[in-house]
Amino acid sequence: MSQDLFPNEPNLNTANEVEQYIKTLLQYQDSCEKSAEYMQADAAQKRIVELKKQLVQRRRKEMQQAHNQQEQEIERAHLEEYNQFNQFWDEKMQKFNDEASAVESELLNKQQNEFNKVSEELERTIPSRPKESSDVLNLKKREEYLAKQKKYTFIQFFVMLRHRKSKNRESKQKKLTIRNTKQKGLIKQTLS
């Protein structure tokens, strides 16, 4: 409405252009007051009030846009920092898992080697044929003694006793060997 009174008004695209034009209108208002053109001064004053309102709205809008832009930049920076943080910890966890797997496989290999050494040592040190008990050795000596005296009927009795004790000993040894073999198999399965 008061813009119609000022047909030569320039395009006011920025806040600085509006401020410059307000200054020009203030000078125009002063010159109108001095020349007693009060209607023109009143129109200039109304236009100045409108332009000041527009300037406040424009500055508010620019401030809001600047705020939104800053907020978006902060969000982007935060997201980038968050992604870097996650990437850092993902790499760190992957490295830790790789090292843990290497240590675990190394430990398993070490245990397997120690198990093999101990097993070989036990197989070398433990005789495959057990020593005869003192009872069996005693029976053999009695048998030899009776053979020298030619008492064959008594010898047969001692031979039967010795065989029975040897068979008991052999069956116990077989059971022990089977049990040890099963235990070795279980240990190997556990280590694998």
Structure, described:
The chain is an all-alpha fold and 192 residues long. The chain has a domain at 130-192. It is 85% helix and 0% strand. It has 4 helices and no strands. It is rod-shaped, with a radius of gyration of 55 Å. The model has no long low-confidence stretch (mean pLDDT 81).
Q: What would you call the shape?
A: rod-shaped
Helix and strand sequence:
HHHH
Rg, Å, rounded: 55 Å
Number of strands: 0
Low-confidence stretches: none
Strand content bin: under 5%
Task: Please write out the topology.
Elements: H1 15-34, H2 38-125, H3 134-148, H4 152-191
Helix pairs in contact: 1-2, 3-4
Question: Could you name the key traits of this structure?
Answer:
rod-shaped; 4 helices; 192 residues; coiled coil; mainly alpha
Give the gist of this structure.
With 192 residues, this protein is mostly helical.
